[in-house]
Amino acid sequence: MARTILAVCSKGKSEMFTPHQSTYFAHWLTQSGKIENQVSRAMASARVDMNPHQIDAACFALKSPLEQGVLLADEVGLGKTIEASLVMAQKWAENKRNILLIVPASLRKQWSQELGDKFELPSVIIDGKVAASLKKEGKINPFDQNGQIVICSYEYAALQRDYVRLVSWNLVVFDEAHKLRNLYQTNGSKRAKALVEATEFAESRVLLSATPIQNNLLELYGLSQVIDPHFFGDEKSFRALYVNRQRDEKALEDLKRRIRPLCHRTLRRQVQEEGGINFTNRYSITQDFTPLPEEWELYQKLSHYLQQPDNEAINPRARHLVSMGLRKILASSSFAVADTLRGMIDRLEQQQWLDEQALSDIEEIDDWAESENRGDEESNDKVGNDEPVRSPSKLSQEIAQLSEFFDLAKNIASNAKGQALLAVLEKALTMTERLGGQRKAVVFTESCRTQQYLQELLETGGYAGRTVLLNGSNNDPHSKEIYQAWLEEHKGSARISGSKAADMKAALVDQFRSNNADILISTEAGGEGINLQFCSVLINYDLPWNPQKVEQRIGRVHRYGQKNDVVVVNFVNRKNPADRRVFQLLDEKLRLFEGVFGASDEVLGAIEGSIDIERRIYEIYQKCRTDQEIEYQFDQLQRSLEETLAARETAAREALLNNFDRDVVSALKTRRDQSNDFLQEYEQVLMDLARAELPDATFNTNHFYLKNQRYDLSWPLAEQNDSEFFRLQATEHYLAWDLVRRAKARNLVPAHLVFHYDQLQGQYVALREYLGHSGTLSAFEVRFTYNKGRTRNTRLVVLAQTDDGHRLALENADHLMSVPAREEPLSDAIPEELFAEWQAQVVEETEAETEAELDQYLEQESEKLERWAQDRRKALMATVDELDEQIRAYKKEARQLASTAEKIQAKKELRKLERKRDDALAEYHQSKKAIEQEEDRLLDEVSEKLELTCEIKTLFTARWTLTH
Predict the structure, then answer these.
(1) 0.85 exceeded by the pTM?
(2) What residue stretches are annotated with the Helicase C-terminal domain (predicted)?
(3) What is the CATH topology of the domain spanning 52-274?
């Protein structure tokens, strides 16, 4: 049914539809057929403006019911959350509602809100506290939820894998799925292996990651194993086929072709070229400051102390961690330094080492420590396991030193950078206001104590009552007050998840969004996983050394959904050459602060995989004593960075993900046109259903009134008018669903339908030739079922012919049903066999189309399994070939031996090698047989899923007449 509305007209007459047409509309709205239309239908019910690349990604994820999953790898900022939500909405519409969403802990509430607010999909966040509460109610397995999407963290799902396994999941979604990419390693992440084991029987998995490959191609192999263990052979064959042949064009093309069904990636430049998203710009403001003399004295003294290699106070096993943390605190504020030094002195006086526990001011310290434990094993081994021996006299000297630093820090009443913040804040707010944004700013600091200082500074500097704190705990009275008010406001609603940490963050972000606050002061931990598109000023009060963290911060505001250009403010200490060079590196070399996109995923991934910038910068601060040394070392770092990026740009082109040899921009334009056409048609049919079922309603073009309640077809208008959004939404308790159920349940008897062409809103030109004609029609539904009953496709068909036997094209018969009509009594019965032959022909043609689609699925699955078996056989034969090569080399060496004894010994060794080769060959033949049997079994399983059944349901028959 493709409506071509050539001209909208108003005849001044009321459009009326019959119960037969209403039933037709209800079945049309709920039929399942082309996946593109199904996804567009799910899109139509969402409260979000979608772009074609997101619909394209969702269609890709849903394209084959036989696939075990896909990797959605769109570049950062393109809305992968919406893509995955659309997939979940479609599964929900198919009544496949056992859905598990595994995400970083900090993103749980954000996901829950997105699903609820934009897609009206109900969800529940499961953690230890919620599970304990459910257990008291008698619910042993917290993951077994009726009618709710289950959201949990990676850590909790891995910990509770036995419970996860007990649920028959229709869909499992992994956000930030690159956390699973080292699955292939023998000593890979235990958590990743536990999650794959827990979800191995899921019908489908969707992995979301903007950076699936950061270090090498084996990470792609690891992610493929999460989705489908039969996608590639084993690690050895993958390494031989692709990793060791990365510069081989044929190997690259082969891998591209193989992963095409597995991986979908769209780039920001492609979306921008298509015109889907007009990405906003980043503008940078650099605010210089010069530390006060007492601040500079504190910096120099503490920095010199940290440069000493034999400090007694710091635990040698945590020296790097403590020193780096103290340097971050030192660069933040004197108030943070004073608090930290007080805690350090207390610990030392109690004979405790200074380790990460002394740096509680930095909320991320536990993450740093975990990273150190993973990456610094060699240095730990050098230190040894014995408790280091300390010199009491030297320790006393250091305590005295730290006490001197503490006295100096606590007597500093003002910080130059804080005063610089007051100066630049008004400038940034004025700039964003000029660019069309709100006068709101988010200020990031790495220190909790600095966060308190900044709030006090701003509250007394012109922003009294206008600030909000966001950190990992939010135990301050003002945050608690906001939280309690938020709980009261949303009492009994789905906004409250039950997780205090998630709800606290939601409450504080809502407070910042409202007119009650202008400035959000956030630590790194507080800023994880929040969307602040309504704000367009970001201030890096403390500038991280890690470019990934800088980009993540900016990404809180400069992301999909941001309507305004973004202003990024950075501070530069002009008295400190190292600080100047850090800023220069991030600004000029990585271009993080200006332009449309910031640093690309490939650039950031290359740095993370090849250069530990944070450690290199730390070492410069630690080791360099003069300005000249600092300049030289930063020059070296910059050179390393340029070499890495130059090499990685070449590697990125070969890394497969950016080009699948398809005209992406053209494909997205086509997708946009198709979606818009379907959406227009869908809205018209939905409104026609309302007209048919609600005779007492008052209708306009895109809305209607019923019992003083307004219903809008457009979600922005629904929000603007505080009206009901008239759509077939996920939760089936709204008016539209009531109308569908009522119309589909109606028992219809044959009737005479008189269609009034002059009451049509628009024109169907092809119907004009039938004006004044009469005939008969039959509406029926064809349902195809396969995939062991899990997949059902339906198609609604109307057959219509004139009394002289002329058959209307199927499209014209559909259009006829949309012409306003009245019902008259039927004078003569309609013969049951009238449409039998034609119906059988249409069903046969439709079945042939469906079987052709299934044949494509079969071909794709067969090819995948053939390649899997081939990979496995090649890997086994490679061992035989390696031993043959060793035997040939050994024979050549043996011929050069002089003595008989050496030759005899050589022959014995040769026999051992030959026996080993023969054993490997025997294993090859035995394993080859097992592989072939497994391939046969999997193909039988695929064939079983493709067994097709067909049902036909006649909805009604009628006489028809088309009048002017």
Answers:
(1) no
(2) 424-638
(3) Rossmann fold (3.40.50)
